[in-house]
Design goal:
Chain lengths: 800, 800
């Protein structure tokens, strides 16, 4: 038998292409005769356009068309609220192009199409726009106060949505508590900063009435649905292709963005292909942001540190629109209790409009904030009760025998109560402690302190609901001639390695090498029953769909081979690209032969023999070539729909040294223990975790989108907005636990976002520990830039 | 309930597009940066190239590449024998480009790719080719004689294949006969002359390794299979699209032709799209021909005219190669006994190589020749026994109670014995007699003769095995928002009206208007399990697959609607684009709503409400959004595989007047009685029959490809090769019989080729009848050009 591929460190099928520069992104598409677009964007946060003149822009040679909202006809509608929820009292979504009112700097006002991008940009600058500038308040806490300037005039206190969730009896819990700890924490606004910014190209075929859109999206099927309905075209007349995509991280889920409407619209209008690729400056003020939340969290505990209840009230900055509804806030609110038993929870949030770039999920999606809140609070509680930070967590863990563990009435994004499916939290913590060698670390820390060096240890335990439904599907087809398997799903990959992971799953079932499994995704013309790549759901939902399809393909191959070999299908083994009778390797056929013979047409030409196989003998020998209800060839489609989310978890720790002079933080060690159930490919898992930690490092140390009092983003470039380079990311020690999920056949859980979630708290906790001898106040927000450290030291009246 | 669409004269969905010039043929494709090809072709029939110099061609500005066989690498192989058969002793197929030897005028020797067609053609003419010219014999009868020049040196007597088939005991039948009649008949070579000649365009995507080929083919799936194996590409990496195709008629089934290899090859080699469209001159010497057969047929009969046995020995001219094997000859041999009981049959044929364009099936495929042979013989037998031509046929018909009627050991193209499934031959003849009013015609004829006018009545009865397997499939998908149904099959249409016929079948099941059923075919990227459009099989095989799929779609819609309406699926009716509970039209939902709600994602944006439906409520209300084994949406694929051929039939008659001075023939009446089982759309059936008759008129009157003694085609243009115009085709009186086929759910039989089959005999029979008072010899060949009539008159020593 072949070696099992599931669980192996299989080299990635996509790497050869991507590493050698043969990736194909939207900007690489060779669209002959393509025109180029550029947007004119609002220069003010909240304003009313008093004068909009495109005359000069239209007059520029090489300009084909300048569109304002008035030109969009039926498309001049606000975009759909993607995820409605009854708690959204005042849903507001954007127009493709602004009407009189603008709501954030960077909002699209006009779209120019020209012979090249240079002309388009020049023309966009020639558009005259005058505004009445309206007052703004960019801080969500102030924006929610009475009298604050309103983003949308008819939305009181800028409150878009308000939700209260109660699980258990929090009042009783707080009444019974020996101790209550309260803190307020804040996480700041960031951006996903993908390598590739947004991108759209479109071609309209006037003859066939077909619209093809290439889009750097995480959700081609969703975008196809949106375009199909917005353009009043049948689904089959709209094809959306996500070619290689240079990072997604959430903001590339369908919004739809102005470009996703305008580029196809212009292509249809002008009967020419049109392309637009966002530049980095635009990306900062156009692609959605995430993160700003302000949590007021309280824990009610016994004197032993057992948490009886949790109250969390938070503000969520949703920016100027709320296209995703309460997604981010809802996720934060449902993950606020972390891995802890906490039987009574009261969580409430307000989503607050601010005149800034709209907020939608970004890797972690509310979890980094929730994790920061609960874990900061746990640290505080530990400190107040004089209990070790590790120990207090251990005392509150849900134990393995308590799974499935439900938090009644805390409703997750799938509409179902939070139900954690499995976990060994205590084991994970123990593994972390062992890896860290806590005694040695404490000794090192004392030694350092004696030398005046500020060494600190931080940790964070997180859980993550992953693998949301409703479903994904997979199609597998075995090819004649080569015997290779083609796999299609409704997803798209932005670096996650689907081409390898799915190949491993299929390879195990049908006995081929992973490199002989070709994965094609991200094309609604190939497969279009599915959702999208987000919410750490691909491996769980698509992976299991691929598995179920592979099992089905295996059964069909075995049956076909059994017919050919005159054997019992139960006796057929598949390995090394062949099907053979168990116990013998000589009585076998290749999968290529199986694929060929399973189609009664047998249209595959045999080049060696230079003949095509005639179908007639089949008819003669078996009667009808294809009996009623049977299908030709080896081709199967199957679907997987999870019963509810599956919960991954992990615990990270860092040993840091803070330089009180430069305020620099040196991460000396970074240890991850994580458990995403059974791993398809540990190498890919490690890549995901490491990438997540790196992105988390950005949030912990550097990344803060800074709006000024006029609502202008001050650091809208990589000159001013810092992201970690490889040099800033420490070596990450990884420890895998594999506690299978009982919810799906492969026993897997999602891991895409995991690494990002705990990093803010890990660093905050470590810095707090490092600086504690100096009497600095607790760390209550990230990022911890040098100036933030400086502030902490200053507050402690340390002479810096 | 909606009106039943099956059987109605529904206006064709495709007509608006095609009639207003919005058809899209290969030459219409807007392939930017496309290069153009031209072939250098052999000027001699049989020769050996002594000198081939492409230097001057390559040097011409604008030329990108000139290919000869030596440049083709792995593709420099002979093309597959598409339909092997053990009787083919000497299968010979062509190279994409000739090696040293050339085998017919027009054989491709080199392929030029240049900036435009003009340059390519100029360059092709600059290629220097010298030949040693070898002796030829283009007449198949002489070519089969000892000592005749050989087309392929190692094929004795030029005999490619020899088959003997015996059904019953012919020797005993002939021994027992009162009377034996013997005749020799000949049908000449013709060409299908489609409006659009052959055409291929190709684009190679070097990044994805995908080859897209647009080809005016009847068999995109077959061509995809050929290209996939020839180019060593996975099937999923080759997409073949047959856009609108301007007539097929058989020669556009996959061969593959040189262009179908060279155009993709050059596109891949040059990394540029390449296009080639055959011009009419090339079409005459490149696209395959059909028809030349010489039959020696004998009938053994009782004195009452009951035929006891049949012997037929015929030569089939296969041209220079035999890519389709014995297809044409086999069809002729199995249909030689027509509608007659004839219990003993001995049929044998030789397929003879001649240094001419290869022969493959052309509308009728051997049947016109077989029909000409048996029906001429029946006329002769009637004359010799003094029995009326109608009466002698009636005496030999298989009667309705004899079906299914098998001719043992006469093996049809599906590998199964000829088994006629149903028919009312006597009713058909009676219907013809009634329509003609034979007494009146006889009176008119006598009157005319008295006036010196030569009036004659001819008739021909034919049967046609149609609807060959192995199978076809159909996919139906119901679209959200519009509720329209998309139908995909593996076929392609060249004017047959599939977009309407399939729509009618689907409309009946799911209760929508035919115009709301969108049929997309001819694209392996859309649906690629199937065979092709040929052999009058589309309606039977695909039509029934569409029906089965529509029944399946109906069941899914009813179930989904029942869930929505909280009703029993058995109580759901579908009509007018809605599903409702029987007995009420108010309790209903639109099919668009059914389509939307049957996908648990419900990704369809509701533009009116400007929201997307959330999936969460589904999960909440029903548990898993997609239960195990269920599929999202309304999408079904089903297949139909016929048990064996189904036999259509008909009888045509014509009243003609021959002008013995001008030798012109005036067709005064033309009556068709035909029975293709249940008709999907009588208007389309009539179009098919009328078109077939028109094409048959060409064969009867005009069309004869005339090779000179050097193997040069003398009439390779529409100046010299005449096809009937609308002015030459008489009004056709049509009478429909509908005897359902018991073999398939819709009870249908094929009709695509029917009209063509009997026309030669009808005209020959009528002319013979018209001229009989003059003592002309029997008519033994078609076409009956004026000079052929002149010959007949001359042989009768009529002073002309």
């Amino acid at each position: 038998m072949s070696t099992r591929q599931f669980g192996a460190r299989v080299q990635r099928n996509e790497d050869a292409r991507l590493i050698t520069g043969r990736g194909r992104f939207v900007d690489d598409l060779p669209l002959d005769g393509v025109l180029h677009g550029a947007f004119a964007r609002s220069a003010v946060a909240r304003g009313r356009i008093t004068h909009l003149d495109t005359t000069a822009a239209r007059a520029l040679p090489g300009v084909h068309r300048v569109y304002t909202h008035a030109d969009l006809g039926e498309l001049d509608v606000t975009m759909p609220l993607l995820i409605p929820h009854p708690c959204i009292g005042h849903p507001r979504t954007q127009y493709p192009l602004a009407h009189e009112d603008v709501y954030h700097v960077g909002q699209a006002i006009a779209f120019v199409v020209a012979d090249d991008r240079y002309i388009a940009e020049d023309a966009a600058r020639l558009i005259e726009i005058d505004y009445d500038i309206l007052p703004v308040e960019v801080d969500p806490a102030k924006a929610a106060l009475d009298g604050a300037p309103l983003v949308h005039e008819d939305v009181p206190n800028n409150i878009a949505a308000h939700l209260v969730q109660v699980s258990g009896d929090p009042d009783a819990a707080f009444a019974a508590a020996d101790h209550v700890t309260r803190i307020q924490v804040r996480v700041d606004r960031s951006t996903a900063a993908p390598m590739e910014c947004l991108s759209t190209a479109a071609r309209w075929d006037a003859v066939s009435g077909e619209l093809t859109v290439w889009d750097g999206t995480q959700a081609p099927i969703g975008l196809r649905g949106a375009l199909s309905s917005l353009f009043d075209l049948d689904e089959d007349k709209v094809r959306v292709v996500a070619p290689d995509v240079g990072g997604g991280f959430g903001p590339k889920i369908v919004f739809p963005y102005s470009n996703e409407i305008l580029v196809p619209f212009a292509a249809k209008d002008l009967r020419r292909p049109v392309k637009w690729v966002e530049d980095r400056s635009e990306n900062f003020v156009h692609m959605t942001h995430e993160r700003t939340q302000i949590h007021d969290i309280e824990l009610a505990a016994t004197s032993d540190g057992v948490v009886l209840g949790l109250r969390d009230t938070f503000l969520h900055d949703t920016g100027s629109f709320i296209p995703y509804g309460i997604a981010v806030a809802q996720v934060a609110s449902t993950q606020i209790a972390g891995p802890y038993r906490i039987p009574a929870i009261h969580v409430t949030f307000d989503c607050v409009y601010t005149p800034t770039v709209p907020v939608t999920p970004y890797r972690g999606c509310g979890r980094p904030q929730a994790n920061f809140a609960i874990e900061r609070a746990m640290d505080q509680l530990a400190a107040e009760l004089g209990i070790d930070r590790f120990e207090i967590r251990r005392r509150n863990f849900i134990t393995p025998d308590e799974f499935p563990y439900t938090r009644p009435d805390l409703v997750f994004a799938d509409g179902l109560p939070v139900t954690l499916d499995s976990g060994r939290y205590d084991d994970a913590l123990a593994a972390l402690e062992k890896a860290l060698d806590l005694d040695a670390i404490r000794a090192e820390q004392e030694q350092a302190r004696a030398e005046g060096r500020m060494l600190g240890l931080g940790l964070s335990f997180y859980v993550e609901g992953t693998g949301l439904g409703p479903y994904e599907g997979a199609k597998i087809r075995l090819h004649p001639i080569t015997g290779k398997a083609y796999v299609n799903t409704g997803l798209t990959a932005q670096g996650q390695g689907h081409e390898t992971a799915w190949a491993q799953i299929v390879a195990d079932q049908i006995g081929v090498r992973p490199e002989d499994v070709i994965v094609v995704e991200g094309d609604t013309g190939v497969f279009d029953w599915g959702v999208a790549t987000f919410a750490s759901r691909a491996a769980v939902v698509s992976g299991n769909a691929v598995h179920i399809a592979a099992v089905s393909a295996r059964a069909r191959i075995a049956q076909a081979a059994a017919n050919m070999l005159e054997a019992d299908p139960d006796d057929i083994e598949l390995a090394d690209g062949r099907a053979f009778v168990r116990g013998t390797t000589s009585r076998g056929v290749t999968l290529a032969e199986v694929a060929t013979m399973s189609n009664p047409l047998r249209y595959a030409f045999n080049k060696a023999a230079q003949t095509a196989t005639q179908f007639a003998p089949t008819a003669r020998s078996t009667g009808k070539p294809l009996p009623d209800g049977e299908r030709p060839g080896i081709e199967v489609s199957e679907y997987y729909s999870p019963p509810h989310a599956t919960w991954a978890y992990g615990v990270h720790a860092a040993l840091v040294e803070v330089d009180p002079v430069t305020c620099d933080i040196d991460v000396k060690r970074y240890v991850c223990v994580h458990d995403c159930g059974n791993m398809i490919n540990p190498m890919i898992v490690e890549g995901q975790v490491a990438g997540g930690v790196a992105q988390g490092m950005g949030g912990a140390f550097y990344e803060k989108l800074e709006y000024d009092e006029n609502g202008v983003l001050r650091n809208a470039s990589f000159m001013d907005f810092l992201v970690p380079y490889a040099t800033e990311v420490p070596h990450i020690e990884m420890i895998h636990l594999e506690t299978p999920s009982p919810l799906n056949p492969l026993g897997i859980k999602g891991v895409g976002e995991a690494g990002t979630i705990p990093v803010g708290q890990v660093i905050a906790s470590a810095v707090e520990d490092a600086l504690s001898p100096l009497g600095t106040p607790p760390v209550r927000q990230v990022p911890l830039s040098p100036s933030a450290i400086h502030d902490l030291l200053r507050q402690a009246r340390v002479n810096v």
